[in-house]
Design brief:
With 163 residues, the protein is mainly α. It contains 5 helices and no strands. Helices cover 81% and strands 0% of the residues. The two termini are 20 Å apart.
């Protein structure tokens, strides 16, 4: 059993903190972004329920950041043995895990909110010109690029840690 203030517990602490940052921050960005689009969509759907499908696509887009953070957290738990209960994480490894989780968490928070804002603006496009929904989707999807890049960096960092 690990001592309360051993190097292993500090390593595990930092690893768990990294997982928490990846999942919580990216999830917060997604929740805020999805909520923004949902609010913008409500009025349009009230007036024209047939636009629900187009607006649902716009609303789903900011939700991906939370998925990226969840995946990084899950991968870290699998790779490190935290899920299996056999984690032996030194302080340097715990700090490295924490650092590897930050890109997806921080960028997921910011990009989820901004993607939600862009997608919410796209709701206006769909309200007035439903045939132009692709332009609204592409505009919102461009913000996704940065979430994907952060996810890839976090994943590359995690897969190159010495577990």
């Amino acid at each position: 059993m690990l001592a309360l203030f051993s190097t292993e517990t500090f390593g595990l602490f930092w690893a768990l903190a990294g997982i928490a940052c990846a999942v919580i921050f990216s999830g917060m960005g997604s929740a805020k972004g999805v909520g923004l689009v949902g609010q913008a969509s409500a009025g349009v759907i009230t007036e024209d329920p047939d636009k629900f499908g187009q607006l649902l696509v716009l609303q789903a887009l900011p939700g991906t950041q939370g998925i990226y953070g969840f995946l990084i957290g899950f991968i870290v738990m699998l790779q490190s043995g935290i899920l299996g209960g056999s984690a032996n994480i030194s302080l340097p490894l715990g700090l490295a895990i924490f650092s590897a989780c930050l890109p997806v968490g921080i960028v997921g928070l910011v990009s989820g909110i901004h993607q939600g804002k862009v997608a919410a603006a796209g709701v206006s496009i769909v309200a007035k010109r439903p045939d132009q929904v692709a332009k609204a989707i592409v505009s919102a999807a461009l913000v996704e690029t940065y979430a994907i890049l952060a996810f890839l960096i976090s994943m590359l960092l995690v897969f190159n840690l010495p577990f």
